[in-house]
Amino acid sequence: MSLRTKTVLGIALIEITILMILTFSAMSFLSDSNEQQLIKRANAAATLFSHAAKDSVLSTDLATLNDLVDEFAGLDDVAYVRVLRDGKEMACAGDKDLLDRQMHEDKTLDGVSDGVFDVRVPITVGTTNFAIVDIGFETTMISSMLANAQKAIIAIASIEVVLVAIFSFILGTYLTRGLTRLTTAANKLGQSGPGYQLNHNSSDELGDVARAFDSMSAKLEKDYSDLSSARADAELACDSKSRFLASMSHEIRTPMNGVLGILNILEETNLNKEQKKLVSTATESGHFLLSVINDILDFTRMESNTLILENKAFNVHRCIESVVDTFQPSANAQGLVLHCYIEQDVPKYLVGDENRVKQILLNLIGNAIKFTQEGSIQIKVAGQTIEQNRVSLNCIVTDTGIGISKNALDYLFDEFTMVDQTYSRSKEGSGLGLAICKRLCTLMDGDVTVQSQPQLGSTFSFNIKLEVASQESETEETSTTPDLVRNDLSILVAEDNRANQLVIKEMFKRLGIDIDIAENGLEALKRVEEYRYDLIFMDISMPQMDGMQACHAIRALEDSNTASTPIVALTAHSLAGDKEKFLAAGMNDYLSKPLRLSQLIEKINLFVSKPSPEAMQTSLDESIVDMQPEETKLTQNIEVETKLWGRRKEDKDLELVDEKILQQMIEDTSAEVIPLLIDHYVEESNQRLDKIYIAMDASDKETLEFEAHTLGSSSLALGNRTLSNLARKIEHLCIEGQQESAFKLKEELQILADNSLNALEQRKLKGFTESAG
Ligand code: ADP
User: Fold this and answer.
1) pLDDT score of 508 more than 60
2) Looking at the whole model, is its pTM more than 0.85?
3) CB 466 within 8 A of CB 393
4) Which H/E stretch holds residue 201?
5) Which of 4-13, 530-539, 634-643, 706-715 has the lowest mean pLDDT?
6) For a surface tag, which of 27, 274, 541, 688 has the fewest beta carbons within 10 Å of its beta carbon?
């Protein structure tokens, strides 16, 4: 209901109420005063008549009495007159009907029902009553007068109500007009921004409100323009920050890539012990520098919400184990026990960004190792179904390290936070790791929390929500293993940096591929015009002609076959949106530096596995040839080798043996010693398993926990990873007081242990060579 309607109704209501009270009180006043007048007049007239008739009554002069009665009855409002003596009528005049009825004396007008007010007065001499006089006075005049008065009052009141309604409508309209203008102004302000002025100059309260509105709007306009220019400045600064980061990433990552590549090559030459140590320290520092740069870049991307997570099926168990494996040597070197247990309810394949999941784990486990001097680091991973197709992956990393003070816990996940802020602090770091973890977990609908006690250790727990991979994506994931399909390829690499050229050449040498190198975009264009390449890897920043320009020029060549040669950008640029820029420039794909051999193979396969129809047959034949073990060894790539190994059907049992761990063992020791180690391990494990079975039968929790722990570690060291997982599960059940469930796993353990040890024996028969690693 509008304010105007409310005003009209309100005023009308008040008016009607007051008028009703007024009408009612006027009517009752009028009626009361007329009644009293009538009574007074009737009594006075009756008394006057009784005095006049007294002599005639006493002398029984009926003729005079009759004259008197007739005369009196002839008066306007007298209905009848009667004189009675000793109950007998002496004289009467007036309305016959009224004279015939039984007379009841009236005291008030309320009792009058027949329209006549009856009065009785005595004719007295001294104290003796000689006769009585009855007189009836008509009341109809008063009644009609009262009815007329009521009508007039109601008519006047109605006219007043209508007039008041009209006036209040006009008043309401006048008052609300100001408010309507204010509303329109506020709406305009909302639609087209501050600045709108009402310019309402009245001196009343509405004028005050309008002036307040105008000054608020003017102030808002000023603030708005200040804010807009501040925002433009901030955006400009942010843009420069991004540009600075882009160039910094390029300027540092490109030479660093070269340095690391050269160190890598240097490591494989004949070096004495001292030189090896120096090279490894330099490599370590280089990797640390790269990781800090990557952290800063990651964080900047998260800040600007430009970090996009991948959504690909990946093997969760392998993902977690590979991170744990990475840390195993450093944990061993520090004398720490690094222990990982993945619950069976963790699905094998999930859909998400494997590298980012790894990043969280790398940060947390890395910190745990960094801040623990002695004791152990435990990683426990569990899965919890939250919806039909989604699980929450819950991971707990517990260490027995230096712990974190209570007040530091509050800001631990803030960026650039290091608990030990002193210049003398012993551990290096950027203070960004946990902030990145927190943001990554949030991006994956989860969270990360910490509990810690100084000197006792810390527990970092994180959960992320991921979709369970469908059957098809599992097959897809396993089929994208990067094994090189052909190596008789003609490849051009455009790269100006000498060190990088060396690294890339070395990588391709390992793949058995000779490449052509162009020093810059111009040279690359010349070479492409002269020779038909299968694939071009193109650096972006180069002198004379950069990668983007070269790509444009190649795409513009007349020969359509040459113009459509696949081009993969090779760059240290890795800011958000870069990939899109390269693709828009005509590049087919993008590889970020520092390069990894497996990524290089992946890209080569991506583009050379789609040959022209005539080349199809040759390519297929070559692929089959390439699948032979001897040929694949050419790649000398552990990952490729391991995956091929796992795929061979006749060696299905060997899945119980993790080839990667064995290769690592060969690298750490020597190929000759492995069979001896296996013999020793099998013999020892059999003895240990006997003890475990006895402990299970005898419900001996302590022995079971101890032996399962030892079996878990030794079986992992020699690649019996599945057996190690089951042993760790048994150990955990004992630690958590659920030994009854552990005892029930005896049969499962017997079967798995037999198969795992057999598989290892079979693998031993195939022999080990240094070169295989
Ligand atoms: P940094 O690169 O310095 O490790 P992080 O963000 O990963 O950055 O960690 C921030 C700080 O939190 C560390 O410098 C350290 O003081 C503290 N911290 C992290 N993890 C642990 C842990 N497991 N034990 C003790 N302190 C830790």
Assistant:
1) yes
2) no
3) yes
4) none
5) 634-643
6) 274
